[in-house]
Every structure is written in structure tokens, then in C-alpha cells.
Amino acid sequence: MSELITIRKAPGKWVVFANGAVYGETNNALELSEGNMTPVIYVPREDIAMAFFDKTEKTTSCPHKGTASYYSIETKSTVLENVAWSYEAPNADVAQIAGYLAFAGGPVNVEQQ
């Protein structure tokens, strides 16, 4: 694994909220720490209501993780653009985050319960 990145199981139950609605719950989240950045919680897709998520055209690239694809959430009242991302084919050093989504904060929160 990259010297800059550590991944560990995030203990406890994690819930994904947007505009007051729950979009996912898991006991299988991962916490990814990269350098001195704030750790990011990654939630397995199978624990998220993916029917509300639409893949967008946005992508970004990280030399350590690979190419991230972005997702918007269609809520009851609005579309929250590019609020989640996923490394669908991550670099080998971080392969365990494949099949997981991370969230940008703001209108979407991932909270430990």
C-alpha cells in the first residue's frame, strides 16, 4: 500500500443522509486516510440505495488511487450533483475500496451511529 494511504475498517454503524432522508446504512465501512487530509469514509454499494444515484460524466484522477467516477443523488425535491465518488478500478495498492462510495459532505453526510 502507498506510504501515504492507510485503509482500515471503520468501527460501528455508519449512515448516509441527504436532505433528511437515509440513503444507506452499514457496519462494513472503510476509513481511508491520506497524508494529513481528513479521513474519508467509504460505504459499500450493496449497503446504499443505488436506485437514487446516477453516474455523471465527471471524473478525477489521483496518482495513488486511480480514476474516480462521480455520482449525483436524486432526492425528493432536487438533484445533488457530484456528491459521491467511487474508484471502480482502483490502483492495486488500494484495491479494497472497489465497490465502495465516498461522499463529499455538504448536503450529504456520513455519520457514525
Automatic annotation (TrEMBL):
The lineage of its organism: Bacteria, Pseudomonadati, Pseudomonadota, Alphaproteobacteria, Rhodobacterales. It comes from Meridianimarinicoccus aquatilis. InterPro entries: DUF427 (IPR007361), DUF427_sf (IPR038694). It comes from the Bacteria. This is DUF427 domain-containing protein. Residues 15-104 form the DUF427 domain.
